[in-house]
Amino acid sequence: MTDPDTSLGRHGTPSGAAVVSSLEANVYEVPLEEPESDGTLTWDSTTIVVVEARADGRSGIGYTYAPRAAAAVVEDTLAAVVTGRDPMAVGAAWGAMAHAVRNQGRRGPVSAAISAVDIALWDLKARLVGRPLVDVLGGYHDHVIAYGSGGFTNLTDEALTAQVRAWTEQGLPAVKVKVGSDPADDPRRVALVREAVGAQVEVFVDANGAYHRKQALLLAERFAEHGVRWFEEPVTSDDLDGLRLLRDRAPAGMEVTAGEYGWDVTHARRLLDAGAVDCVQADVTRVGGITGLLRVAALADAHGLDLSAHCAPQLSAHALTAVWHARHLEYFADHVRLEAMVFDGVLQPVDGALRPDRARPGHGLDVRWADIERYRTRPEERR
Questions:
Q1: What is the reported pTM?
Q2: What is the pLDDT of residues 280-307, one digit of tens each?
Q3: What per-residue string of b and e applies to 266-296 under the rule 16 or more CB within 10 Å gives b?
Q4: Together in a domain, 183 and 321
């Protein structure tokens, strides 16, 4: 019998097999052309943490939209956990990362860091076998329906109508606008959007938890007058009773949704157990990467509900192909702009959907390192 001490390498990988040789994180802070607002927040830049995993002369890329602290988690904790592991055993690496951060907690920048590394490992695995990620994930679909998202509350009427019309010209079947900064004016803005896109395009609204319960109920009635059938986070997603109240009493046909702020499967389970949503949202860059998103998808499936992907459209387009009950993905204006700046190989909507490119290995994205170098923050600036 072969001596197991010599036949197995670090983390149980066969001797001589390819292992993850390095893991590196870089942070890029990209300013917006002008500040943007939703019902609860205003921002003037977008930060993306890009992770590169290497093995056998190839690289896999993952990323997350998160504070710079996520990069420190990758470098200080996760790199030592993942380096030396079998790049084909992504699930084992995910479990090891989740175990390693026990004393740090699993939410916020920590979960974002795990997400970026997990995505990088899935991409690396697919590139090592020379296959598109959609095939490695065993996708049920070859495309995912997309909806236009932005409609920030600080946009002028002219800018708002121009943005939603541009999405309809791209063939997107639905548009989503932010509400909540000025509740008294929100019905007017929604009516303006409905007039701009016409009767055949769906109109969604997202309050980002800005309303209180009775206020949200009143506005749900007003929004329904303009054909709104998707009311996202009418109250904070921590208010499970409030979400359930809205779900039970909203106008017929209006779906109440939440989940984008979930950092782990526990958040999704609480939403589902409370009967708080009609459709579950998950963000692949927050919830634990592709591995984490698929766990949330399994829970949604068990409750008979669809899954919708929040933001990061270039990654969501691949991840949701593996979810048979996928509803759609969010073609979010900020991330559409930034991902086109950071990567080559970005997907464009065709017939209202994003379709992964099976001619490119992995998720098909290649970092434009030289182009984005000016936005990179130095390690000493984030510690």
A1: 0.94
A2: 999 999 999 999 999 999 999 999 999 9
A3: ebbbebbeeebbbbbbbbbbbbbbbbbbbbb
A4: yes
